[in-house]
Amino acid sequence: ESVLGSAKDGAKGLAAKMRQPLGRNIIAALWGNCTIKVMVGFLFLYPAFVAKSHDASGWEQLLILGLIGAAAGIGNFGGNIAAARLKLGHPAQLVVRAAAAVTVVALATAITGNLLVAAGATLVTSGASAIAKASLDASLQDDLPEASRASAFGRSESVLQLAWVAGGATGVLIYTDLTAGFTTITAVLILG
């Protein structure tokens, strides 16, 4: 029985190491990333509904979606390059700044209701998303022991995917006017 008891205690100790609570910096980085992912999910679906709802020809719809898609691709590429070159000494602060930038460009789009401003918001959001994700990964690697990193990465990815889905659902449910849509998503981002 003593061998069985010590085996149970060893399993509990291993489980505790593998599922360590996340620290303040990781929570801040995760929360900021979720805020940005809401906007990413929104931008993934909402422009398609906006393009379809307007009495535009197929070419005009393609132009709208192409502009938004190109901005997303360029922003993601630039964000990944920037993230690789940045010194991530305070990753949680960088994530908060990225989330603030995304909120500001969403507000600018809500105020103007302009498609080009929406494309700029997409560019900034994609770049900020790449930088914020790299910062979150750096926080997870720096602040957690090796035994609990895999579990933390899995939990963080699950939460980020749920935030993306919430943003996409918002994009589907909101009226297809740029001002109305971006005002709603800006309110959500401000809460984030």
| Structural class assignment | mainly alpha
| Gap from first CA to last CA | 51 Å
Oligomer status: single chain
Please write the string of helix (H) and strand (E) elements.
HHHHHHH
Reported for the largest beta sheet, the result is: none
Q: Which shape, going by the Cα principal axes?
A: elongated
* Mean pLDDT over the full residue set: 85
Task: Give unreliable regions as ranges.
Answer: none
Number of helices: 7
Q: What is the tally of beta strands?
A: 0
Q: Helix share of residues?
A: over 70%
Q: If you had to describe this structure to a student in words, what would you say it looks like?
A:
The chain is an all-alpha fold and 192 residues long. It has seven helices and no strands. The protein is elongated and about 55 Å long. The N and C termini lie far apart (51 Å).
